[in-house]
Amino acid sequence: MTLVLPSWLTPGVAEYLAAAVLLARDKGQDAHAAARDAAIAIMPAAPWPMIEEAARWAVGLR
After folding, report:
1. Counting runs of H as helices and runs of E as strands, what totals does the chain give?
2. CB 49 within 8 A of CB 40
3. Smallest Cα–Cα separation from 35: which of 61, 6, 4?
4. CB 58 within 8 A of CB 35
5. CA distances from 42 to 28, 32, 34, 54 (A)
6. Which site from 1, 39, 48, 60 is most exposed, i.e. has the minimal number of CB atoms within 10 Å?
7. Residues 25, 27, 29, 31: is their CA dihedral positive or negative?
8. Average pLDDT of the chain, as a whole number
9. What is the largest CA-CA distance in the chain?
10. 28: left (phi over 0), alpha (psi -120 to 50) or beta
11. How far apart are CA 8 and CA 5, in angstroms?
């Protein structure tokens, strides 16, 4: 399977976000909130639209 990352999203950040989503789903928690919190933690200076896009991308993974 090939994943297409947004041009600004590095593989390391994508892996971190995907792990946050998987952990949240495993615990029955809100995956989007977990991805958003993880994006804020790893990219604290990123603008809000970038944080939201990263979270939506991570939640869209299956």
Report:
1. 3, 0
2. no
3. 61
4. yes
5. 23, 15, 12, 11
6. 1
7. negative
8. 89
9. 31
10. left
11. 8
pLDDT confidence bin for 28, thresholds 50/70/90: very high
Type of residue numbered 32: H
Per-residue pLDDT for 62 more than 70? no
Q: Is the pTM of this model over 0.90?
A: no
Residues in the chain: 62
Mean pLDDT: which of 8-17, 22-31, 51-60 is highest? Answer: 22-31
Q: Residue holding tokens 């090939």?
A: 2
As given in the structure block, the two tokens for residue 29 are 């928690």
Q: Residue 17 has which token pair? A: 């976000």
